[in-house]
């Protein structure tokens, strides 16, 4: 609903002043009521930007877009400029990771605002010819492809290619991602032979940067496997799918192992649960983790469906994929799904001992709720309501669980 506070009138702007839409760069007629520094051409673009990225960074944009007072000291000015630069760099990485996560989840429309925001800040910091523009171009290209706009996707990829050709020292991860995105567009057009060549380049550059067994190389193998699967070359596809699962399995085991090493008391009294942080805390590390988890789910569920529909099922391979899904849902704090896959795995008589040990770690980490309640009961609180709020805040108990526990404040 349009209000007087969120409406702007271009004719009322000072001469030479233009405010443009955050998404399409058309003359703005609306302004964000919260930050008062972000403009839109209509309600639709404001809604798209809000749910895509702006909700998470609204107040973070204020110090970057308002007119700042003059500082007499050169040292103060330098310090402030460095601080603003660091904030922009953080926003670039954060908004990209959010957009990348939406891509893996298949929510292409929501991926666009984050990529556009990162693109603007890169241009502000490094200029229009910087190779740092390429990741944002690639996200926009993939989002356009997902929305069925192949011509727009081709345009973004062409911009990315041109930028890379002008940057002889282009980082290997960017080269890898560029070739992968080009291949994805070629796959959508049915040009499998050329796509395979580009995916070979993707794997080469990713392996150079991360190592041949890294999960960050697996995306190229997964796309190659999909091509061979479509061509009916099942032996080759089967081998590549196994390799992808092995890469993710190894990575997820390491991540889960590190997570379960965190002590219960440190978790209670230390940092706030990731899901309960301020929506504008700009936790880039966690944002990158969420993007990685979204990628794992996309890849593993695709392979899982293929394996389940095989006439002659490979039980060992299915078990490994189910273990991967159990771990990734654990990392995403989707404990209902963890329980489903955990029960499924534990029902198998020939379960590998390593997988059994890993499941025990996961269950122990999840089951520390009861111990957590005992520890919290020893801490002084003014009332039982405060204690319940504390438990709910950290995600350890629901209100129903609290009421049925021994923590009554007596």
TrEMBL record:
Domain of life: Eukaryota
Keyword Transferase: no
Pfam family, one: zf-MYND
InterPro entries: TPR-like_helical_dom_sf (IPR011990), Zinc_finger_MYND_domain (IPR053248), Znf_MYND (IPR002893)
GO MF assignments: zinc ion binding
Keywords tagged on the record: Metal-binding, Zinc, Zinc-finger
MYND-type domain segment(s): 21-58
The protein's name in its UniProt record: Zinc finger MYND domain-containing 12
């Amino acid at each position: 609903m349009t209000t007087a506070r969120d409406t702007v009138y271009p004719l009322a702007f000072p001469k030479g002043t233009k405010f443009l839409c955050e998404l399409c760069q058309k003359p703005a007629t609306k302004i964000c009521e919260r930050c008062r520094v972000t403009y839109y051409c209509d309600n639709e673009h404001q809604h798209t930007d809000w749910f895509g990225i702006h909700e998470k960074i609204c107040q973070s944009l204020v110090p970057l877009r308002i007119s700042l007072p003059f500082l007499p000291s050169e040292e103060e000015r330098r310090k402030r400029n460095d601080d603003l630069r660091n904030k922009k760099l953080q926003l670039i990485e954060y908004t990209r990771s959010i957009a990348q996560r939406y891509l893996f989840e298949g929510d292409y429309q929501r991926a666009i605002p984050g990529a556009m925001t990162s693109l603007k800040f890169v241009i502000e910091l490094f200029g229009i010819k910087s190779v740092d523009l390429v990741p944002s171009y690639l996200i926009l290209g993939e989002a356009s492809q997902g929305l069925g706009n192949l011509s727009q996707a081709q345009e973004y990829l062409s911009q990315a290619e041109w930028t890379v050709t002008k940057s002889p020292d282009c980082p290997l991860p960017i080269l890898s991602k560029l070739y992968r995105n080009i291949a994805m567009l070629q796959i959508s057009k049915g040009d499998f032979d050329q796509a395979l060549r580009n995916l070979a380049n993707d794997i080469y550059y990713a392996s150079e940067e991360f190592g041949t067994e890294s999960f960050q190389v697996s995306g190229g193998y997964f796309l190659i496997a999909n091509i061979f699967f479509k061509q009916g070359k099942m032996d080759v596809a089967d081998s590549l799918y196994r390799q992808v699962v092995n890469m993710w399995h190894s990575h997820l085991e390491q991540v889960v192992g590190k997570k379960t090493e965190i002590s219960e008391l440190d978790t209670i009294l230390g940092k706030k649960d990731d899901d309960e942080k301020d929506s504008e805390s700009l936790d880039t590390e966690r944002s990158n983790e969420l993007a990685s988890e979204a990628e794992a789910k996309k890849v593993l569920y695709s392979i899982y469906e293929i394996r389940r529909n095989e006439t002659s099922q490979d039980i060992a391979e299915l078990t490994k994929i189910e273990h991967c899904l159990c771990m990734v849902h654990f990392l995403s704090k989707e404990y209902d799904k963890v329980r489903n896959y955990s029960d499924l795995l534990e029902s198998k008589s020939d379960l590998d001992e390593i997988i059994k040990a890993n499941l025990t770690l996961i269950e122990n980490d999840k089951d520390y709720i009861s111990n957590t309640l005992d520890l919290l009961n020893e801490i002084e609180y003014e009332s039982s309501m405060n204690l319940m709020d504390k438990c709910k805040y950290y995600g350890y108990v629901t209100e129903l669980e609290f009421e049925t526990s021994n923590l009554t404040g007596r």
